[in-house]
Design goal:
Elements: H1 3-19, H2 29-52, H3 72-94, H4 99-123, H5 131-151, E1 156-162, H6 172-175, H7 179-185, E2 190-197, E3 209-218, H8 225-230, E4 236-245, H9 255-264, E5 271-277, E6 280-287
Antiparallel strand pairs: 1-2, 2-3, 3-4, 4-5, 5-6
Helix pairs in contact: 1-2, 2-4, 3-4, 3-5, 4-5
Length: 288
């Protein structure tokens, strides 16, 4: 996608969000929209030059990667879309936008942020747009939107945890050459969770106690199972049931502490965990 198209896309984005303002006269809204639009437009232009410029361009096309990496990448899209929607909603609420419009346009932020990346992929001969990524993006956004609509609250929190897998050095160009790259690229090292706020389903339970369901995979040096098995690797899915801590109920007047709590609540903290993999159970005193 050319730079002019990117700018046009974000002008439309800006116009759309500005319509959400209606009669609200708030000094925070326009700087929020302009600042976030300019920053992200610049980020996409940089991404286009740094990541895609070396690859041949071709007509827009899809590539079916739904069977790759045990779908860990798709769960990552789901996680990102949820939190981008949540962030967009909170930003618009801070700027003075009404509840319904903040919820709608905030949820749409994940589409504005993530869809252009799929468009980049679709025009690249090296990649291709992924229908699975688009579905995962929509599902993550809808989990946020649906909870706010039904409960006017978030009771189910997508979370993330990471521990180095030891596989990255085998294919550093794919799985990461250092810790920061592994954090994004090594799907063996990532675990994704849905943390359920139990006290909001049953008021007799402690407010700090959550129950989390987790998913990860291991043994993935290559994207496809067939490639892994040809090279004597045995990729497996792993499922988890774990205790979790939730600090949302303990927010106070300090913005810094509240921000820290928000950051902590997107990460799964270490806790006793039951793992199921290869039809065998394993108990971890602490897993992260």
């Amino acid at each position: 996608m050319k730079t002019a198209n990117l700018i046009l896309f974000f002008l439309l984005y800006l116009v759309g969000l500005t319509k959400a303002q209606d009669s609200i006269q708030n000094k925070r809204l326009k700087p929020l929209i302009l600042g976030s639009s300019v920053i992200y437009t610049g980020s996409l232009i940089a991404l286009n030059e740094l990541w895609y410029a070396d690859f041949e361009r071709q007509s827009f096309h899809f590539f079916n990667d739904n069977n790759e990496w045990k779908q860990i990448d798709k769960v990552g899209h789901f996680y990102s879309a949820f939190h981008l929607s949540h962030l967009g909603y909170r930003g618009l609420k801070w700027a003075g936008v009404g509840e319904d419009k903040a919820l709608f346009w905030g949820t749409m932020v994940s589409a504005f942020v993530l869809t252009p990346i799929e468009i980049f992929d679709g025009f690249s001969a090296e990649y291709g747009a992924s229908s699975g990524d688009l579905v995962a993006n929509c599902t993550g956004a809808l989990l946020f939107f649906g909870q706010k609509k039904v409960w006017n609250d978030i009771r189910i929190h997508p979370k993330f945890s990471f521990q180095r897998s030891g596989y990255a050095h085998l294919r550093p160009e794919i799985l990461g050459a250092n810790l920061s790259e592994e954090l994004l690229k090594d799907y063996n090292a990532q675990t994704y969770w849905l943390s359920f706020d139990l006290s909001k389903f049953n008021s007799y339970l402690p407010k700090w106690l959550n129950l989390a369901l987790g998913y990860s995979a291991d043994g993935m040096i290559y994207a496809n199972d067939s490639q892994n098995k040809e090279n004597s690797y045995n990729p497996v899915r792993k499922y988890y049931l774990a205790l979790d801590l939730d600090f949302n109920e303990y927010k106070g007047k300090s913005k810094w502490i509240n921000t820290l709590i928000d950051l902590i609540n997107v990460i799964k903290l270490p806790a006793p965990t039951l793992e199921l993999s290869s039809n065998k159970f394993r108990l971890h005193s602490f897993y992260y």
